[in-house]
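User: Predict the complex.
Assistant: Input components as received:
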Amino acid sequence: MSTAPTAIKAKQRPGDRVFSGSAVFAGSMILVTLAAVAIFLIVQSLPALIASHEDASILPENFWSYVGPLVFGTVWAALLALLMAVPVSIGIALFISHYAPRRLASALGYIVDLLAAVPSVVFGLWGIGVLAPAVQPVYSWLVDNLGWFPLFAGPVSGTGRTILTAAIVLAVMVLPIMTAICREVFLQTPVLHEEAALALGATRWEMIRTAVLPFGRSGIVSAAVLGLGRALGETMAVAMVLSATGVVTFQLLTSVNPSTIAANIALSFPEAYGMNVNVLIATGLILFIVTFAVNAIARWIVSRRKEFSGAN
Amino acid sequence: MTMTTKPETPTSTATPIENSLTAGRLPRPAPWIILGAAIAVSTAIFGVMALADGAGFNWGAALLVGALLYIPAIWLFSMLVEGRRRAMDRLVTALVTGAFVLAMIPLISLTITVITYGLNRFDAEFFTSSMRNVTGEGGGALHAIVGTLLMTGTAAIISIPIGLMTSVYLVEYGRGQLARGITFLVDVMTGIPSIVAGLFAYALFSIFLGPGTRTGIAGAVALAVLMIPVVVRSSEEMLRLVPNELREASFALGVPKWLTIVKVVLPTSIAGITTGVMLSIARVIGETAPLLIAAGFTQSMNWNLFDGRMSSLPVFVYTQYANQGNPPEAYLDRAWAAALTLILIVMALNLIARLVARFFAPKFGR
């Protein structure tokens, strides 16, 4: 029979109380801030949810018919961006972790991280000034030669500022975070697995396919989902690059493009007044809920693999 | 016991392999030769096309098509000489390297563009005057630079203490439900889209100060919402790196817990914390959308965070682009010059952060 030794209470000095008190206070500030974000957004959104065209001039009929195309555009642009960014970021991560010379690897990783340091408004300027004119000939070639494919149906946009261009810019912007996470998991592959594969005569690709990729699968998935969260919320680059008309269409290359929630808020908010402001805040609330769900899925995937903590 | 089968002895008629280690493989420089050939072929094709329709020669497209041509070419050659498995390996190597090069294209293109366009107006007037009463050429971004510094500084003043103390709580005190909840909520905060932070600050201040209020402090609050989770995350990571032996040694000497944290834990991790804080500043200083929503924009100098709209560099870039007047070049030049300034500030912050991390890191035995 054993009794647990009673824990010896440390002497509580005033400094201790003040310090731990302020630490707890700071921690609870996080709770308060997040609760405030949710509460204020909901309070400001509620009137908009039941508003009609008479209340807010921005609405075509009611709130849901307004936000529907925007949600579609947001998800569509983000998915397109992800479709491009996932293979490329896996490639870059493999290049840095397994192909590049060891001594260069960290420097190369830093170079990719530089992309993350570029403000989104600069990406917007670059997208309009450089990328859109550069891809426009490719687009018109695609429409001329592959126009039978529904996604590439014409008429082609004369400026190149289509949803595909916006998705390319988004893809470039989410590359660094996805690459960083993938690189981190790939580097955590047990060296013994890799050496075992090589010792059995595997080529480098076979080693990666049999040892690195299976190990990193959940990391890749969570990187993709985190990238999706970023792409959903990205504002300025889309607002500047995309010439949006607010329709629902899957066509990539025409001048008729769906808008995204975030870009629509940024473009409409400075001139909004009255109930229109509440409508825009309500769309922001929906964006918040969508990104929250996406990020929660990413966290859940990461937490299933506790030893991996590349997602920050 | 006799062996029923004997291993086959190599027949003497087989031709001896010259060098068994390199036989059946492409020679070392082969990939480079194939790459050169692919680019040469594509350059030739584009050259003929340029001659045919009289258009200018497109170097970028020629190099791109050449690089694309290289991928099937190396696969084909390797297939013929080395067999299927090595061909696959070569193909993947080419694709993976290609992915890295592909990511470098926007970075290089962006750098060149920002520097060439940005230098047009990167002059003294740009840094010494505001846009007040300026239409057309001239004018500068001083009001935006001041606004950026004021709002980012205020955001830092709000979020560094909160973020740092939260990470101290999580590492040193946090146990049980509250700590788990805070960790989860910090994760949630990391994922808040920047424009939602702007909407929050706008909603907060318009409820208390009347609708349509746009002030510098609202922008600072929006930035702080974005900055706090980054500070918490990076400081938490750094505090966890402090070896427990240091804390135990301090406790053994009878030092109170709070003094242990202040005198032992924080000084040990101060370099990493500084790096994290600077990186978080670098991250929020480029935010456009929340400031556009919460702080608005103006043409004049505004030193007062609590009264009136306040411009910032990213919003300056956006408004100069979006509201072009006459002549449009003057507005675009200002936008690019401000973009260059912004990138230089962000790069400087990043660089200083890395240097701090390198030179002031505590020296452990490892």
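Residues 63-99 of chain A form the longest helix (37 residues).
Let me know if you want any component modeled separately.
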